[in-house]
Amino acid sequence: MIQHRAQQEPSPAPAAPARALLPTIVPALLVGIVASLVLLGVEAAAEQLEHLLWRDLPDALGVGRYSVLWMFVVLLATAVAVGLVVWKVPGHAGPDPATTGLDAPVLPPVVLPGLVLATGVMLAGGPSLGPENPIIAVNVSLAVWLGMRAFPKAPEKGWVALAEAATIGALFGTPVAAALIISEALAGQRIKGQLWDSLFAPLLAAAAGAITVTLVAEPVFDLGLPAFGHPGWTDLLAAVTVALAGALLGMGAVYAFPHVHGAFRRLRHPMLMLPAGGVVLGALAALGGHLTLFKGLDEMTELGHDPGGWSAGEFAVMAVVKVAAMVVAACCGFRGGRIFPAVFTGTALGLCAHALVPEVHPAVGVAAAVLGMLLAITRQGWLSLFVAAVLVTSPGVITLLVLASLPAWLLVTGRPQMQLGPDGRAVR
Question: Tens digits of per-residue pLDDT, 292-318?
C-alpha cells in the first residue's frame, strides 16, 4: 500500500544541476561590473556639473549658493536643458517617466544617450528624483543588446534579470536588496527547481555591482542616529502610528499623481511641460529650503546628524515639500526614480514625530516613517523593510518594523500605485 502510494505521488522537481548554473557566472559578473560602472559614471559626471552649478557659478557671480533667486535660476535652466534633450535628441530620452518603475522596459540603443544625458542633468540640477529608474533602464537595454549578440540563444529575460539585479545591488551597495526584490517578484510565478537556482545568477550580478561600487564610492546609508535599545510597548505604538502616517502621506502623493500628470500633459510639449515644472520646483525649493533639492541621500544624512537642529514644523514642511517636489518632477517629464526622495520624506517625517513627541525615539520614528512612505510609493514590502532597517542599524528596530508594516500594508494594498498606464490612469 505504501509502495503503491509512493509510485502514484509525483516526485518533486529536481534542482537545476550545477553544470547548468556554472556558465552563468562570467556573464553575471560582467553585467554586474558594467552596470555599476554605468551608475558610477553618470553620478560622477552629475556631481561635477552639480559643483559647477551650485558652487562655482554662484561664487563667481557673488550670489548665494542656495538663495531663492539662484534656486529658481538653476531649476529653470535644468528644466530647459532636459526639455531640449527630450525634444531634440533621438529617442526623446525614453518613455514618459510617470509610466515607468523599477521593472524597466528594454529600449532601443538610440534612446540610451539621451536618457543618460537627461538623467545626469537632472541629478545635477536639483529636481527631487533619484537615478534608479533610468539607470536600470539603461543597464537592462545594454545587457539585452550586447548579451543577445554574444549569446543569441540565451533568453532575453535572463539578461533583464541580471541587469536589474546588478543595478539594484550597485544602488544600495549590497546584493541583499536585489535578492529581496527578486524573491518578491518570483513569488507569483511558477518556478522550476529551487528558488536559489533562479536567484543564483542575478544574486551574483548584484554582488558584483555592489562590490564594485563599494570599492570605488563606499556608499553609506546609516544616518548616525542615536542607538536604540530594547523595544517596549510604547515603541511599538509609536512605530505603528508613524508608519501609518508615512503611508498616508505617501498615498496622498499617489492619488495626486495622475492629476498632476494630467495638468502637465495638457501643455503637450516638453519645452512647455518641463520649464513649467522647473518654475513650480523653484517655488517649492523657496518654501522648503535647499535640503529639499536633489535625490535626498546626502540631505537626509545631514538631517540625521542633527535630529534636534530643526523644529517639528520645519521637519513637517520639508517632508511635505519633498513629496510634492517628487510628484511634480516625475509628472512634468524629468527622468528619475522615486525611491530616494521618498526616503528623505520619511526621514523628515520621522524626525518631525520625534520633535513633536520626544518619547518617540528618532531611530524608531525615522525607520517607521520611511517604511510607510516606501510601502505607499513602491509596494515593495521587502525593499521597504530593508531600506528602513539599514538607515538606523539598530537590531531592536527590526521587530517593530515588521509589526508596523502589517497595518501600513493594509492601508496601501489594492490601491492605485505611483505609476501610470498608457491611458494615463494609475496602475493597480
Answer: 999 988 898 899 888 888 999 999 999
Count of C-beta atoms within a 10 Å radius of residue 254: 21
Cα separation of 323 and 79, whole Å? Answer: 19
User: What letter represents residue 416's amino acid?
Assistant: P
Please, what's the b/e burial string for 106-132 (b: 16 or more CB within 10 A of its CB; e: otherwise)?
bbeeebbebbbbbbbbbbbbbbbbbbb
Give pLDDT tens digits for 161-193.
Answer: 899 999 999 998 888 888 888 777 766 666 565
Q: Half-sphere exposure (CA, 13 Å, Cβ side) for 188?
A: 3
Q: Is the Cα torsion angle 347, 249, 120, 287 positive or negative in sign?
A: negative
Q: How far apart are CA 148 and CA 144, in angstroms?
A: 6
Contact 343/250 with Cβ under 8 angstroms?
no
Structural element, H or E, at residue 13? none
- Report the half-sphere exposure of 230 (CA within 13 A, side-chain side): 1
Number of residues that this document lists for the chain: 428
Residue pLDDT, tens place only, 372-398: 999 999 988 888 998 998 888 778 888
Looking up cell 495622475 gives: 258
- DSSP letters for 246-275: HHHHHHHHHHHHHHHHHHHHTT-SHHHHHH
pLDDT of residue 198: 76
pTM: 0.90
Indicate the DSSP class of residue 426. B
Angle at 245 between CA 241 and CA 248, to 5 degrees: 135
